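Sample pair:
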Amino acid sequence: MDSKNKLNEEQRNQFLPVMKALYKVMETSTPAPEDVNTLLVLTRDLTKDLPGGGSGLPVIAGFNIDDMGLLPEGDVIVDIEGVPYINTQFGSFPLSDVSLMTDEERARFLPATKTFISVLEKENIDQNEIQTLIDQSEELKELIPENLRGLASGFGTQAAGNTSQDDSSNIVEARIPQVTIYSG
């Protein structure tokens, strides 16, 4: 049975390019500098549209888009004498050719990313696909250190429109009220 996606087309199109760029960077051990640039530019631009300019985004493993010093406009990855550099407010630094993810991490995160992209692409979503996304999200939630799970749950429920900060909430409970049966 299909349901109407609670995100309207404009909302879906706000996140879809970022998720597609993320997927493209994640799917290979050696992403092209152009693909990394696209991801960083889209992410930077998306955070500008968020309340507080993205300052409410969670910090995971010390990574925070606000603290990266990205320039407010223009490309983030630039070519300097044939070498890709990341261009920041702190200067330009050679882009590392170290793989961003291990093969194991790719195998763990790509399926949920792909499912989420599929959900974003559709006006009407299949309940089985939503269940798959919920199941994948629950598996990934287990990777979050115990002391940070409340933050992750709170962020997820806020994104779903539930303002409760109850640490016992989970993505399943957050999504149940979001499902609307589409009738024709």
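Residues 2-94 form one domain.
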